[in-house]
Amino acid sequence: MINKVVTDAKTALEGLTDGMTLMLGGFGLCGIPENAIEALLDLGVKDLTCISNNAGVDDFGLGLLLQKHQVKKMISSYVGENAEFERQLLQGELEVDLIPQGTLAERIRAGGAGIPAFFTPAGYGTEVAEGKEVREFDGKKYLLESWLKADYALVKAWKGDTAGNLVFKGTARNFNPMMAMAGKITVAEVEELVPAGELDPNTIHISGVFVQRIFQGKDYEKRIEQRTTR
What we know:
Pfam families: CoA_trans. It comes from Sediminitomix flava. The protein is 21% helix and 27% strand. By secondary structure, the protein is α/β, with parallel strands linked by helices. The protein has a single domain, classed as Glutaconate Coenzyme A-transferase, CATH 3.40.1080. Strands 1, 2, 3, 4, 8, 9, 10 and 11 form an 8-stranded mixed sheet that branches. A 3-stranded antiparallel sheet has the order 5-7-6. Helix 5 crosses helix 6. The radius of gyration is 18 Å and the shape is globular.
């Protein structure tokens, strides 16, 4: 069985250059590839197109890449927690494609499944529909949406094995699995890395066939985006 383990995040990102399209897993700050984002900062790559549910916060997650102006375009569904994102957008420094969350998820899933386009009712009659083909099915209007794919998909899993099989936990299972399928090169960082064959096949969420590189992550902060107490 192929061993896909690399030593660290920097090694896992070899070949990643300016102008590439990246998918970055997670939901809010949950399940984001913290180590891979730090490696992107160190690499200094720029003019990136980043596909992610959201843009992190000002001092964590994708917000760190925005601070260093490494991101040219964001393709997201929610961006409300990042003041620097707002500033760059209003100043014309950042391109933004804001997509309904379900549509974003399905476009990513379609990219991994090899489906180039599909119809959805979400966004019809709004600015989202501008320039898109509209068809009627059973008396209802639908928009044509295209797949999303990436040069690199950077995902974070709870557990993984040396063959690249992945298990996600809780909310981290939202976008990470489908992004893992939609990248030309998928890099997985995991909290726990085990030998191939040790994971229960019935618990595996993503097969190692979709993962090219995997490494043991470290020093996870696992920040909470909005902490509410009483």
